[in-house]
Amino acid sequence: MAANTIDIAAAIRKDVVCMHCKGTNVGSAMSCADILAVLYFDVLRLDRPDDPQRDRFVLSKGHAVSAVYSALSLKGFFPRGLLGSYLVDGSPLTGHPSRGSVPGIEVSCGSLGHGIAIAVGMARAAKLDGRAHRVFVLCGDGELQEGSVWEAAMMAARMGLDNLTVIVDANNLQGYGRSEDIQPIETFAPKFAAFRWGVREIDGHDHAQLRDALHAVPFTPGAPSAVIARTVKGKGVAEMEDELGWHYFSVPLAKLAPFVDELGNGDR
Predict the structure, then answer these.
(1) pLDDT at site 268
(2) Is the alpha carbon torsion for 214, 220, 225, 229 positive or negative?
(3) pLDDT tens readout for residues 188-204
(4) 127 DSSP β-pair partners
(5) Which of 57, 170, 229, 246 is close enough to 141 for a disulfide, judged by CB 3.0 to 4.6 Å?
(6) Please, what sign has the CA dihedral across residues 185, 165, 95, 88?
(7) Across all residues in the chain, what is the average pLDDT?
């Protein structure tokens, strides 16, 4: 029976809220929970983290790694109890992904703009080796202001990497303001299309749209695919939603239980 990705996304958000009693970027992790739930439990061919035929996932917006840790623990790749060690000195659960820290973390990322370029290399290697696995990348909307993203996009199309999919978590908030005031999200699809990528724009919280898009890749034969997923920063907790401050705030202990209760209502 197919996994209930809506329930899984709610579980990811609860984990994230609990983990972010320490550390920042809770809003960034909340916005991509639905994307990760559909990816890990409906799309990625990933039964074992050491399977050489597995699909690869690269978290380019590395500051949202708490949501990935949650998804990996829900997959059973490491014990759920380890989540409580997030950001504790000596813990493998660091604030940005570190390759090999726990099973399922494929790439070390932190500096924005690097993940897509790394994924291009991974997708190209798969082609050269005659392997059938695919590479998926999740990046942020503010991240697309990095020039290295577009250098990689140009190369991916030139090499016909139809085994590569980039998902943009377009939550319209970045470190210093709204993305639309710095580099409008409406420009992303035309840019990818100009680089000869197949492109779709979707609601990044609608699981049916996520499944339809991610199961349809490659959108254009012989070309890489880009999914522009419109999301809400802090999705799931009303106080956090679309509020820039939650890019930086930790969750106060006094608010932890109310936030978890709100996420348990199942109606957001």
Answers:
(1) 37
(2) negative
(3) 999 999 999 999 999 99
(4) none
(5) 170
(6) positive
(7) 94
